[in-house]
Here is the input.
Amino acid sequence: MIQTGKLIASLPLVLLLNAESLSDEIGQTTGQPVPESGLHVQAGISGGGLVTPKSTMPIGAGDTILNPGNGLSGEMPGSLIVEENSSQGLQIERLNASIETGIGTLRVGRDWASFNELLLTADEPGPEQDDRHVVDQIRWLTPNGFSIALESSPKSSFGSAESRNLDHQADDSTSVVLSWQRVQDGRPGDYRISAMGTRLNLSQGGQGFDGDNLAGWGLNLQGNWKIGDLVTALSVTYGQGIDSYILRRDGRDLYVMPGSGGERSSSYSVRPSLYYALSDRSKFHIVLGHHGQSFENDSQQGGKTLDTIHLEYTWSPWPRTELGVKLSQENAEGTTDDQDNTRILLKGSARF
Here is the structure.
């Protein structure tokens, strides 16, 4: 199998538009910022540059290749090379409104998925874009660290007995996420636990499968340890049918056999991370990740692993502004789409 690479350079711009200034006061119980009552609106705007993915896939006799994005279909032995150039314009990626009261916060809109959040410090949740999707969300958060969210699930694809490629979709899926976070003010260690359940609706060209509406579930445990300005953290995730959630990509959540239902994937993720405040205005992140997936019938579907490295440096030249650069390296290994991806992102943010 031939390994190929991908380089993506983009310039995301994030604007935080708040009707009222956010309080910087830290709560004595949870370590979380104490919210002011009122309505707040937040928007995230991003723009992408040239994207040039290229991959070489071995194809056995009788395998069906369906790739609607490139208009490719057919049955052929040998190898198939897919190369596509595209550019992304400026677009609104996240938009939500929140109502904050003394007993909690109600947040409605399109925002980062709440499962698999990376806990580093009370005011620094970690590199948001590393492993998280943007989803439609209704979320309630309480001052004691508990939250419940009803979300649309990330779009996922799955293989079937007719094809080992990502040619089917699980549409209109819904997830429920429960989480509890303990951030101890003035103490060295914090921890967080979250659980999720999701329903996968299966379809193939408008035709349903027997045994559809399968359930997926996931559990995430994480904690950190503070030594001065240095924070180390470890996150461990395991679940079934949540591969696309863990890997932040179109994952193979299921292996479907028409007429007899489907088999959920078993997925795990281990992510150690390090956060260091170089000064009051600059900070450094490094996040390592090892993600794996397997099916009971590996001879048909095959497993997959993904190793990731994220390096990020941010600098705040003026109050309420932040500039940064991030380098990401990903190495995926599996049955059909092994590849190495490198991404360089420049970002800026401002809060008003």
User: Anything to note?
Assistant: The mean pLDDT is 63. Helices lie at 243-247. The two ends are 50 Å apart (CA to CA).
